[in-house]
Amino acid sequence: MVVKFILKGRDLEVVCTTGDGAGLPALSYRHGQIAKSFSPQEIAVEATTLGKLVTVKVDSSEDAETTFAVFLPTFESSPADTVDFTTVGMYKELRGPSITPGRPITGWRSVPLFGIAQAALVPVGQEAAC
Length: 130
Description:
Layout: E1 2-9, E2 12-19, E3 27-31, E4 34-38, E5 44-48, E6 51-60, E7 64-72, E8 82-95, E9 105-120
Antiparallel strand pairs: 1-2, 1-9, 2-3, 3-4, 5-6, 6-7, 7-8, 8-9
């Protein structure tokens, strides 16, 4: 079974599919004018007691890196059900050597997200996503 998560916040939309048979892209991210899609290989997923922590690198340059993560809840659902939920997205921003040589600056910020999750059945043999 696959679960599709649609998450929305201020100027932010994330769509992620989890489970066996999820197709590509596994995660799509849109924040303002920035829109990116991520394959399963570009996504880090960690199971926690709070749910799955899904992490992607949304921006990277020589002197900066921005990582985005979101907690996705785990739940039991039939394919016809949808579940509304709230969660939090987190950004980790690293600014490097050109700002402060030898001493990078790291900052974190959180964003509230409102989500809808829907389970679906998919054909056997398709690749899992996040």
